[in-house]
Amino acid sequence: MIQKRLRKSSMSGLLKDVAFITILAIFFFVVVGKFGGYIGDYITKMSCKSIDEKYVQGKHPGDGVCIRSKGNVDIKK
Q: What is the pLDDT of residues 24-59, one digit of tens each?
């Protein structure tokens, strides 16, 4: 009798934990999908500064690139 109650309570707790992790993962993927381009642009912009290149913003979020200047010619990565 105690074992049956213990199994039910631990199974209920496990289902709650799985449901919580699932909701958390869905929320994370929605946020990253929505703001991932902006995060990528920010990282690209910071890396351009660290390697002495110029950051050029793209048409859409996530399309930004670093441009290296050699003489009068710009070389895109």
A: 999 999 988 888 888 888 898 998 888 888 899 888
Determine the Cα–Cα distance for residues 63 and 41; give it in Å rounded to an integer: 7
**Amino acid, res. 54:** K
Structural domain boundaries, residue 56: 2-76
Helices (H), the chain: 2-50
Q: Number of structural domains, the chain?
A: 1
- Round to whole Å and give the CA distance between 20 and 75: 48
| pTM confidence score | 0.53
CB contact at 8 A, 55 and 77: no
Helix (H), strand (E) at residue 73: strand 73-76
